[in-house]
Structures
1.
Amino acid sequence: MIIKKLHDLGFRSEHAYLAAFGSIGLSVVSWIGSLKAEPGQDLARADRWGIFVGEWAPTFFGLGLALSQFEQQDGTLQESGVPHLREAAKGAA
């Protein structure tokens, strides 16, 4: 199972969520960077770069959800220090 292997390697749901949000930010940065790096090119090239990097986010969110479910079953899910998130996690269980 891939999720178990990732968990055994130390990859946690928090890491996947951070990677997803990082991918969203990197998508915007790559889009702006592509616009400025090649001003003679049309907008379509910048859009392709932004979309390419932006497509990683759903994959990382999916991995985060799968790892979170595995961590709940395994008993290694860390409680969040943020009260409203902690309450939401208790309500979802």
2.
Amino acid sequence: MAYLHHLTIVVPPGGTDAVVAFYAEVLGFARIPKKSKSEHVTGAWLQLTPTVQLHLSESDLPPHPSVHFALVVDDLAAVLDKLAARGACWHTQSDVLGSPRGFTIDPAGNRVELIQAADTLPAAAG
């Protein structure tokens, strides 16, 4: 058995605070303390779920244009409102397994796929 513990994305030097604000304000992530061995690395850690974290690592390397991660959200419409309020882009994609989805870009240029949770979709009119 395997499960995801964390993923790391690159942010430009000095860009951590803007990226932390994006994930906190748009998606409700909480900043958490970095472990002692990682304190020398510039960046931040965020808690996504009780068991999954997002690590931000400052680097001069640009993000790869096709690399992304996908998040399932309970209320995609509310997230889209928050993205619009921040002036963030949104690119609608075809549904996946019956759920609306699309891509945005965080302030560091990382692609993030957002998918509406299937169990929160409105029931079809019958």
3.
Amino acid sequence: MIIKKMHEMGVRSEHAYMAAMASVGLSVVAWMGSLKMEPGTGLARADRWGIFVGEWAPTFFGLGLALSHYEQHDGTLTADVHEFRQTQKAG
């Protein structure tokens, strides 16, 4: 199973979520960069670059969810997640 192998390699759900958020930011940067660096190619090419990078985010979010699910059943959730859940129950 890929998720189990990723977990054994040290990849955690938090890493996948951070990669997803970085992908969203990188999408905007790629779009703006393409507009400025290639002014003659127009908006369509910039849109393609932004969409290309932006399509990574759902994959990383999905991996994050799968890893989180695995961590819950494996018992390896980080202390931060446990603390968050305890404050949610208390509050």
